[in-house]
Amino acid sequence: MGNFLRLALFILALGALAAGTGALLLQERQRERALERAAAADAAMLDALRDGHVKSQRAILGFSALALICLVVISIVPARTAAAAPATDPAAARTEMRGLESLARATNAQRIELDHEREARHRSEQDLHLQQVLANHALQDKIRLGRDLHDGLVQTLYATGLMLETASQQLAARPADAAEAGRLLERAKSTLNAAIREARDTIGGLTPDALEEQGFPDAVRAVLDHLDGGRLRERRVALQSDLPAFEPAVRMELLQIIREAASNALRHGGATVLDISFAPLADGRLRLAIRDDGRGFDPAIATRGHGLDNLAARARNLGASLELDSAPGRGAAVTLTLPAHVA
After folding, report:
1. What's the chain look like in SS3?
2. Is residue 197 located within the same domain as residue 314?
3. Of 28, 144, 165, 263, which residue is 20 to 30 A from 178 by alpha carbon distance?
4. Average pLDDT of the residues in 273-292
5. At 206, is the pLDDT very low, low, confident or very high (cuts 50, 70, 90)?
6. Residue 73 backbone phi and psi in degrees, to 5
7. Is 60 exceeded by the pLDDT of residue 92?
8. Could you tell me if residue 110 is inside a domain?
9. 340 contacts 319 by C-beta, under 8 angstroms
10. With left for phi above 0 and alpha for psi between -120 and 50, is residue 88 left, alpha or beta?
């Protein structure tokens, strides 16, 4: 029996029971009233009312019995079962399983291929990154080599040229007194040998051994001795004794800055007085100041060659600030302020 038909019969049965019960109650009430009215009438009329009442009760009972039978039928007869599933064909099932197995193999093969492609792409990205790192290192080495050659070897050779020029002038001025010229020539020879060693160390990526073995004040004086060439009339070096012990890389950057600033004062400024001071400040920072009495220049319009660019680059490497104070006719001052943690 369908679910819809069962629901319809259930609703009809409930309606019949409700209607029969209501009608029975209504007739019972009417019968009581009629009996009360007929009490004063004759016996024949009373018998007629009783017969009608009996017939009505029988009809209502029959209708109620039919409703109860419908409810029993609805309760006993089960709902119509769904159509039985068709029997599975073994051959079709095997074919379907083979298809699923083939699909699984194809999916696994695609996954393996995607993994291989992903690994190959990852290796390519790593190789590209390595090439970029190597290229960047090569560029940095080239920049470092050029800076070291300019600030080291070129300045040393220039100082040697100054010594030779001074010796030549002294020989021309006083031929009979060649002792001072001979001393300058010996210094020039020593400086040339130092330049050769420095060139070898620079090409090998090493720092000069002589400057490494000396203390910082002695290394500063050795740099100035190489550059002087007898041109300086006065040289003042004031290095505070409470300066920290610098790391080798920081130490070499500071020495190269001093060498570049002093060389610029001699080569371009024609200075005869050089004043170098290096002391800690009250807030823990360090200040290096290099002043000369040379011709000076206007920093706003000065041609920026390797020297000024190298000074700025070395200051950046140290995390320091660099100030240039100069004007035509009043010399130049280079001030380097280093952070407290630079040591």
Report:
1. CCHHHHHHHHHHHHHHHHHHHHHHHHHHHHHHHHHHHHCCCCHHHHHHHHHHHHHHHHHHHHHHHHHHHHHHHHHHCCCCCCCCCCCCCHHHHHHHHHHHHHHHHHHHHHHHHHHHHHHHHHHHHHHHHHHHHHHHHHHHHHHHHHHHHHHHHHHHHHHHHHHHHHHHHHHHHCCCCCHHHHHHHHHHHHHHHHHHHHHHHHHCCCCCHHHHHCCHHHHHHHHHHHHHCCCCCEEEEEECCCCCCCCHHHHHHHHHHHHHHHHHHHHCCCCCEEEEEEEECCCCCEEEEEEECCCCCCCCCCCCCHHHHHHHHHHHHHCCEEEEEECCCCCEEEEEEECHHHC
2. yes
3. 263
4. 94
5. very low
6. -60, -45
7. yes
8. no
9. no
10. beta
- Say if residues 255 and 220 touch (Cβ distance below 8 Å): yes
Within a domain: 305: yes
Structural domain count, the chain: 2
> Can you give the residue range of the structural domain that contains 219?
134-342
Q: pTM for the full model?
A: 0.45
8 Å CB contact between 272 and 233: yes
Residue from 20, 119, 124, 131 nearest 68 by CA? 20
Q: Which of 278, 261, 183, 277 is nearest to 227 (CA)?
A: 261
Residues in Cβ contact with 85 at an 8 Å cutoff, skipping those fewer than 6 apart: none
Do the strands 273-280 and 286-292 form a parallel or antiparallel pair, or are they unpaired? Answer: antiparallel
> pLDDT tens across 125-162, in order?
755 765 665 566 556 656 666 666 666 666 677 677 77
Strand 321-326 to 273-280 pairing: unpaired
Picking from 41, 76, 111, the residue at the C-terminal end of a domain is: 76
Same domain, 158 and 274: yes
The encoded tokens of residue 70 equal 């419908």
Report the length, in residues, of the chain: 343
Structure tokens at 142: 């080239």
Rg of the chain over all Cα atoms, to the nearest angstrom: 58
116-152 burial, b at 16+ Cβ within 10 Å, e below that, comes to: eeeeeeeeeeeeeeeeeeeeeeeeeeeeeeebbbbbb
CB 291 within 8 A of CB 269: no
CB atoms inside a 10 Å sphere around CB 267: 19
Of 181 and 63, more confident = 181
